Amino acid sequence: MKKWVYLFDEVAKAEKYTGSWEDVRALLGGKGAGLFDMTRAGVPVPPGFTITTEACNEFRKTGKFPAGLWDQALAAMKTVEKQTGKKFGKAKNPLLVSCRSGAKFSMPGMMNTILNIGLNDEVVEGISRLTNNPRFAWDSYRRLIEMFGETVFNVDDEAFEEPMADYKEKMGYKVDTDMTAEDWKELTSIFKEVFKKHVGFDFPQDVYKQLELAIKAVFESWNGRRAVAYRNKEGISHDLGTAVNIVTMVFGNMGEDSGTGVAFTRDPSTGEKKMMGDYLLNAQGEDVVAGIRNADPIEKLESQMPKAYKQFMDITSKLEKHYKDMQDVEFTIERGKLWMLQTRSGKRTAKSAVKVAVDMANEGLITKEQAVLRVTPDNVDALLHPQFDEEAMRNAENSGTFFARGVNASPGAAVGQVYFDADTAEKMAKEEKQDTIMVRPFTKPDDVHGMIASKGVLTSEGGATSHAAVVARQFGIPCVVGASAIKINLEKRVMMVGEAVVKEGEWISVDGTTGKVFLGKMPTTSPSLEEQTELLTLLNWADEICARKDVREAPAKGWPTRGLQVWANADYPKDAQRARSYGAVGIGLCRTEHMFFEPERLPIVQDMILSEMSEGRTAALNKLLPYQRKDFDGLFEAMDGYPVIIRLIDPPLHEFMPDEEKLLEEVITLRVKGESDGLKEKEELLSAIKGMHESNPMMGLRGVRLSISMPEIVEMQVRAIFEAAADCTLRGIIVKPEVMIPLTGTVKELEWIQPRLERIAAAVMDEKQVQFEYKFGTMIEITRAAVTAAEVAGHAQFFSFGTNDLTQMTYGYSRDDAERNFLITYQEQGILETNPFQTIDRGGVGKLMDWAITEGRKTRPNLEVGICGEHGGDPSSIEWCHIIGNNYVSCSPFRVPIARLAAAHSALKHRPQKKTNKANGRASKTKQKTAKQK
Ligand code: ADP
Ligand code: MG
Ligand code: MG
To answer: What is the pLDDT of residues 676-708, one digit of tens each?
Structure first.
């Protein structure tokens, strides 16, 4: 018979069955594994057992408990009765349990948990006598009926909350603590009626029936709406299933010597090395998280219960060292005795993720590699996201647009329109494409879809460990909680602070970094990288990893064995400077056509285009030359010592000409008015533009094709590049120009154009009497060029994948049309897994790239290969570039830090197998030795 049930002290059996701790976590769930691990370490955990995820998956298939499960659960209950000396369902010394969900990956608040199982009309009297605390007994019983109704039978929580509010009002009570034992008893009867009315039968008095229904409800909550939404968002597989943990109840609501709390071993918002938590005296379970009463900070416990506090600090510090990560723990103190109920690695903000990783590496708790792997590219992205402009914030505070202040629960700047419930916030964001801010008194698990869809979240109640705060931090949504000055009127759909009123749909600005909320839209700025010292340290570690000469296996001579370098796409010197300050070590793409659009240059460009004769073109181009030279000069200077790839003119010429329709209108107006001034010139211009018309310009006369029919332009460009490079060299700047020919489809094109350009390069160097390194190469963006890469590499000294065009050409999609018309449907229907314009399609476009590199290096072993399409900033595409042997990726300057981290992740993930095993073996042996020596 299969083992479906494991007692908390049976961790060895689970390990034997699964073979690894990772698989124990899959079998018992993260919460379960934590409880087993703590039990083994001697941490006080209430006795209990776990029903496996395998059982859940069987149940989900058949709708029934698999054979043997219930008997094993009953046997485990008997053991727990022995361990605790209590009896389930017996009034004399009753055992109560909780039934808690827990999947492999923690999904806080996404699935069900039911507390106080085992209470019925008799047991409640027993507990009451035993504890001499009838108030506590009846409070617990009414909680069970309520939770049972809500979670097992999906009764709306309002069905219970309303009669409770009515009761309190009738009695003139303000808070729950005003309720006496008699009141809770009275409310228990009311709740029983509510239960019967909504469920159709009486609340079950059979405690085993309670247990059975609760287990089934937890199994079923795996497929609850909010759990499914959460897994979709987090990319967690829907097949894993949840385990069920049955845990002996311990009570934080037994009086003033009891309490319950949650804590993080480091600050989940800033990463500071300081315990951060909240607790409540005389309270149970979710009371702290729900933010129903205002909790006390954990430090206060030291004076209230010094012994329990010290034990708590010792245990949590041990847990952090054991798991080598920041822990998020739940605890309960029952009459002075501390019980640990959960430990897991804590969800944290991007800022905290970076600080904790760097600190722990510096403390020697983890390696630099582990630290680098702990931070995600998304974390880095979040840290470089816009923040509110400080001066604008100061001004706002003086000018009266300051609205309220709360707890800074999740950092970042959010500007959006206010909506007072999750459904509306989601609807407005998705259907109306609005930026929304979801505002609620507090949030519950059912609100998560609205939070995810919103730019920011604001609540008037709750603290830094409240549901809203935890969820917002996890998803990187800016969030302010507990802004208690705000009065929210959900019926009238407004919120107010004094005179200031915000109606639904109006704009506010929420600053999750400072906790401040402003009326209207506040301007934002991008944060500086230089000030984020921990992030800089981490990125330097990432670069060190990529620079190692043995992180990649070279299939043949000439392939890089170090990791990827990160270059940037930059057209102007100021972009190049930013790219450098963000850590780029080259320019992978400088587009020269922007340079033609400047107001004083465009007329010259148009003259040039309209000249019928080569001489006329050359004359115009000679006027452009000094401008271009200056552009390149600035770029080389900014990138002193680093390679700069300059792409020769790429777009079709009509892009530089006036708009045809507008010109036609002007001509018609002149004709109608009978004016002749300028009419003739306009008519000529119009017919010239008409003559240039192409029905599919993106596949028409552009790129190298244009250069071949009008070589004067690129000849001028190459002259400008080399003159600038020569001038810079003479000034002592190290230049490495690389000239890139776009849109090559056949090597014959290169054969035609490249020697002409190389002659100019040589001529300039001769004229100026200087020598410097340079390369001529091509973009690989047309399928045929990729397929015939071996030939192309005969001329090109480098390849740069233009993956935007390569994807368009390979799929035969025009990007703009596809994204507008059918890409979403294709993704929804599962025809495309991801948008191939965002993430490289490894199976098609990616294969072409792989082929092109392999073939290209057959001809030219030291062929330099990069990517300059937008994919160069996408982590999964970067990983692909690492795998197939790119030398570098090039992306927008803003994404350079993200790419540096992603490059290091790729290097660590794909370390050559054999070598690492050896290296690991060595490392662990020496470690063992030093451990012994100690
Ligand atoms: P979640 O996964 O949503 O955190 P939990 O299963 O951890 O749900 O339980 C919800 C709350 O109930 C937590 O505050 C937890 O500490 C508390 N709780 C769970 N089991 C017990 C128990 N046996 N005794 C006391 N409190 C419990
Ligand atoms: Mg929990
Ligand atoms: Mg292109």
So the answer is: 888 888 888 888 888 888 988 889 999 999 999
Cα separation of 186 and 208, whole Å?
Answer: 25
Residues pairing with 61 in the sheet: none
CB neighbour class for 678 (10 Å; exposed up to 12, middle 13-18, buried from 19): exposed
Structure tokens, 17 = 């069955």
Angle, nearest 10°, between helix axes 679-691 and 660-673? 150
- b/e per residue 328-361 (b: at least 16 CB within 10 A): bbbbbbbeeebbbbbbbbbbbbbbbbbbbbbbbb
Residue 137 token pair:
């007994």
Ligand 1: residue of 105, 115, 144 to mutate (most ligand atoms within 8 A of CB) is: 115
Of 665, 670, 756, 671, the C-alpha closest to 708 is: 756
Token pair listed for 819: 């994204």
Cβ pair 423, 432 in contact under 8 A: no
| Length of the chain, in residues | 934
Sign of CA dihedral 827, 831, 834, 836: negative
Residues 98-134 have pLDDT tens digits of: 999 999 998 877 778 899 999 999 999 999 998 888 9
Please indicate whether residue 868 is annotated as part of the active site.
Answer: yes
What confidence tier does 289 reach under pLDDT thresholds 50, 70, 90?
low
Residues 6+ apart with CB under 8 A from 603: none
Residue 502 token pair: 């915000």
Q: Which of 343, 345, 310, 341 is nearest to 324 (CA)?
A: 345
The one-character DSSP state at 347 is: P
Q: Is the CB of 100 under 6 A from ligand 1?
A: yes
Phi/psi at 723 (5° precision): -65, -45
- One-letter amino acid at 930 equals T
Name the amino acid, one letter, at 621.
Answer: L
Q: What is the CA radius of gyration of the chain?
A: 34
CA angle centred on 747, ends 742 and 753, rounded to 5°: 60
Closest ligand 1 atom, CA of 288?
Answer: 14
Q: Which of 56, 479, 868, 891 is catalytic?
A: 868
Tokens 């909504």 identify what position? 198
The 10 Å Cβ neighbour count of residue 296 is 18
Q: How far is the CA of 855 from the centre of ligand 1 (A)?
A: 59
Give the C-alpha separation, 256 to 249, whole Å: 18
Please state whether 797 falls in left (phi above 0), alpha (psi between -120 and 50) or beta.
Answer: alpha
**The residue to which tokens 């921990």 are assigned:** 534
Q: Which of 341, 343, 474 to mutate to test the pocket of ligand 1 (most atoms within 8 A of CB)?
A: 341
Closest by CA to 607, choosing from 691, 659, 681, is: 681
Q: How far apart are CA 412 and CA 458, in angstroms?
A: 13
- AA letter at 209: K
Mutate to test the pocket of ligand 1, among 80, 98, 127, 331 (most ligand atoms within 8 A of CB): 98
The reply to whether ligand 1 has any atom less than 6 angstroms from the CB of 332 is yes
| Distance in angstroms (rounded) separating the CA atoms of residues 471 and 436 | 17
For residues 354 and 271, the answer to whether their CB atoms sit within 8 Å is yes
| 467 flagged as catalytic | yes
Structural contact between residues 196 and 202, judged by C-beta atoms closer than 8 angstroms: yes
| Segment 488-526, tens digit of pLDDT | 999 999 999 998 999 999 999 999 988 999 999 999 887
524/902 Cα distance (integer angstroms): 27
Ligand 1 within 6 A of CB of 357: no
Q: Is 496 helix (H, G, I), strand (E, B) or coil?
A: strand
H or E stretch covering 517 = strand 516-519
| Residue 414: C-alpha distances to residues 406, 418, 479, 688 (Å) | 15, 11, 8, 49
Residue 49 has pLDDT above 50, yes or no: yes
Ligand 1, atom 1: closest residue by C-alpha: 109
